[in-house]
């Protein structure tokens, strides 16, 4: 299973008034993440009914590639800022395509 492709759904809720700042911080992650060799796609969405809620839909060639992504300096920098921007902890779920 370690070599199987993995899908990640990441949900982030901005603190009140910080929606645009969170959007900018996540948007800054897109280009470097898409350039990673294991990234298939990395797509940011904002809820149509709740502008504070963001969702990343990610696909990776393997769990190993995802683990390398999670250790990238730009992602570590985002994780350090997250407590100031997020109303609740980042919600990550991991999926395997059937």
Structure, explained:
- The chain is of the alpha+beta class.
- The protein has one domain: Alpha-Beta Plaits, CATH 3.30.70.100.
- A 4-stranded antiparallel beta sheet has the order 2-3-1-4.
- Helix 1 runs antiparallel to helix 3.
- The protein starts with 5 loop residues before the first strand and ends with a strand.
- The relative contact order is 0.31.
In short:
Keywords: Monooxygenase, Oxidoreductase. The chain is 38% helix and 30% strand.
Descriptive key words:
four-stranded antiparallel beta sheet, monooxygenase activity, Alpha-Beta Plaits, AI-2_Isomerase_LsrG, 38% helix
Q: What is the number of domains?
A: 1
> How big is the Rg?
13 Å
- Structural class label: alpha+beta
Q: What characteristic shape results from the CA principal axes?
A: globular
Q: Which percent range describes the beta-strand content?
A: 25-35%
Tally of DSSP helical segments? 3
Order of adjacent strands in the largest pleated sheet: 2-3-1-4
Outline the fold blueprint:
Elements: E1 6-13, H1 19-34, E2 39-46, E3 53-60, H2 63-70, H3 73-85, E4 91-95
Antiparallel strand pairs: 1-3, 1-4, 2-3
Helix pairs in contact: 1-3
InterPro entries: ABM_dom, AI-2_Isomerase_LsrG, Dimeric_a/b-barrel
Keywords: Monooxygenase, Oxidoreductase
Domain ABM: 6-94
